[in-house]
Amino acid sequence: MPNPVDPSSERRPHRRAPDAGDALPGELRVLEAAQRSLDGHGKGVRGIWPFLGPAFIAAVAYVDPGNFATNIAAGSEYGYLLLWVILASNLMAMIIQSMSAKLGIATGRNLAEVSRERFNTPTRIGMWLQAEFIAMATDLAEFIGASLALNLLFDIPMIWAACITGVVSFGILSLQARGFRHLEAAIAGMVGLIVAGFAFQVFLADPDATDVLHGLVTPGFAGTDSVLLAVGILGATVMPHVIYLHSALTQNRVVGADEEARRRIFRFEFIDVIIAMSIAGVINMSMLVMAAAAFHGQGLTNVGDIDVAFRELGNVLGNNADIVFGVALLASGISSSSVGTLAGQVVMQGYLQRQIPLFTRRAITMAPAFVVIAMGVNPSTALVLSQVVLSFGIPFALIPLLWFCCDRTLMGSLVNHRVTTIAATIVVALIVFLNGFLLWGTFVG
């Protein structure tokens, strides 16, 4: 149940503008450039550049190994039929991530912090526990994906591949100590690797452009199994942990001195969301298109496991397509796993006002993946099950986010417009319903 809160106490007092003395030189240059843009001195790409980054980190979760599994399964079994689902999911993701970014800009707090203030203690503890559980399930998928990539590329036993993945992910996280721009650059570089990898594979697969366009604009299903797979695509696209993370990435990155400044910051960050989510959408569509052309088009309609897809790509497309696929999977697993660890830190700090060293959290969240790998569980099965677990957590992130963004006493001039609220309500209701359907289909149907 919500706690009674004095609206006047909810706004600016919690916010502290970053101290220039605390900023690293690279961060300081970005903040100075952002201020010039807010003052109207930065135009075009130069004006937008300082605000780009938070959405790219969030976008990594939208191209994690779970997406590989669902998109390739959809393309191999149903061809281009479910391509429209990815397009619709991506548009939904834009709405959701823009609201998350807006919450951080408007309040100077992230979703977990606002939830802590708005809910009573039992509710707060319950939401924290489920968010931690979801973060572990997310990390399981991403960690296993990276380990599987190393296993496929270099024939390294999975347990040793897991150890290497852990070391590399520690290295990625260590970049944060050098400033947010270094981490953002590393993540953006890995997204670039994934883009290049699937662009190459789509080029080799040579899909029919007419079939691609038809799949994009013509909604349709082919039986109950295709509906469940479509919901799985949605579940792998909308990730609860980055809803928390994105609000944390924007809450104090660039602080607006007044309502007008905050509105301008959001306009810049909205562009960041559009660009990053569009790139993530193109990657997901490329996965399905590649699988449809390379597998479904060749009569290989049961390529559901990532390791099977890796082997078949080498046979069907040649030209080291399997190696390129493995590198893209490795970049996806390592980058998304690092992002998942950051999100877990935000959840704990926000709900409990407690923080543990980032590397300790990384070690804790790796533990379930090591257990699953040591048990010999099929990696693709583990990825699918992790997506099912994620379905439980989506309502606990989406519903509070929508509620807060509709509260004028909290959001000020950045409160959702009526059209945004209607669209967001439809999106949230649809996502919650479809994920409930996925759970029913998994455990009952």
Describe this structure in words.
- The structure is a single chain.
- The chain is mainly alpha-helical.
- It has a single domain (44-443), classed as Amino acid/polyamine transporter I (Up-down Bundle), CATH 1.20.1740.
- It contains 19 helices and no strands.
- It is globular, with a radius of gyration of 21 Å.
- Residues 1-21 have low confidence and may be disordered.
Write a concise keyword list for the protein shown above.
445 residues; mainly alpha; Amino acid/polyamine transporter I; 19 helices; disordered N terminus
Blueprint (SSEs and pairs):
Layout: H1 25-38, H2 44-48, H3 54-59, H4 65-78, H5 83-107, H6 111-118, H7 121-154, H8 158-174, H9 180-205, H10 209-217, H11 224-237, H12 240-251, H13 259-294, H14 306-316, H15 321-352, H16 358-374, H17 379-405, H18 408-411, H19 418-443
